[in-house]
């Protein structure tokens, strides 16, 4: 941020009076421009013993598999966001169930929230941001090709809970940086 | 938003290519300025059979009681945010427990997350944004003077769960507008 979005002046980066952290502050109109974490919402949608995954048509992690998920929009609920993202990325209609995982990713200032859901019909197809959409049984999950660590964690909880029959809400926090190297690796 | 925060040009409000909603788009540098919901994080901190409330020294709801809570900052986890807000508003040190409530407030594009927590000592006092900080037993909760509906919902869940002994994570969504009228009324 270089310019004030309210008046167009060049902003300064300093600690406002009574605050604890430096912010982008406008010296002309005094607006403090806060920057806050973003929420990613998505759905783990079931059809019998299979779950819906999308193969990404966009960066990051182009070509890798993920649950339908994306940035929550203003004026929607987290559950509405999960249904909207599933419709956008997989052209799939779902009945949203309970919130299932909430995983902090402080290194990139994101919080990822995934709902359990029930796929309402089989008329899904790739949306603009997906190359493929498909149902996967546990044995067929492409574990080495899951796009994001929060999604891999969510899938592991899901299959563990399904096996045990003890469903619960799971929280987590990804603190380690993604592994470096030439191979595409899950991150965030 | 009137000006591009990257280059200072006047922004346009239109649907970018491949998008579904209108955004603030810069015609000069092509930056799309997304606006997303904000997360409020806080803590319900216990000391024996009492819980910690703060009386607000700032608007909105100046003079009313709330759990220590505030906007999550970049590069922290939700749990870290809950501990930070408790330290800032009540100068209180806590051990953060499980996530307890997550309540959507789509009308104001916020998601409120409250953790259960254990107060570590009694050396609390009002921070800059609080007039008073005090421990309340259930019978003494000032129900008519709770600042926000998400906080009142969280407190009701807490005392219900404590009575039943069945602790669980609760989600919710506040869809109705706050009641109108002259009296200060809980909102958000
Ligand atoms: Zn300004
Ligand atoms: Zn620009």
UniProtKB/TrEMBL annotation, chains A, B:
<dbReference type="GO" id="GO:0016787">
    <property type="term" value="F:hydrolase activity"/>
</dbReference>
<protein>
    <submittedName>
        <fullName>Conserved hypothetical NUDIX hydrolase</fullName>
    </submittedName>
</protein>
<keyword id="KW-0378">Hydrolase</keyword>
<dbReference type="InterPro" id="IPR029401">
    <property type="entry name" value="Nudix_N"/>
</dbReference>
<dbReference type="InterPro" id="IPR000086">
    <property type="entry name" value="NUDIX_hydrolase_dom"/>
</dbReference>
<dbReference type="Pfam" id="PF14803">
    <property type="entry name" value="Zn_ribbon_Nudix"/>
</dbReference>
<dbReference type="InterPro" id="IPR015797">
    <property type="entry name" value="NUDIX_hydrolase-like_dom_sf"/>
</dbReference>
<dbReference type="Pfam" id="PF00293">
    <property type="entry name" value="NUDIX"/>
</dbReference>
<feature type="domain" description="Nudix hydrolase">
    <location>
        <begin position="36"/>
        <end position="159"/>
    </location>
</feature>
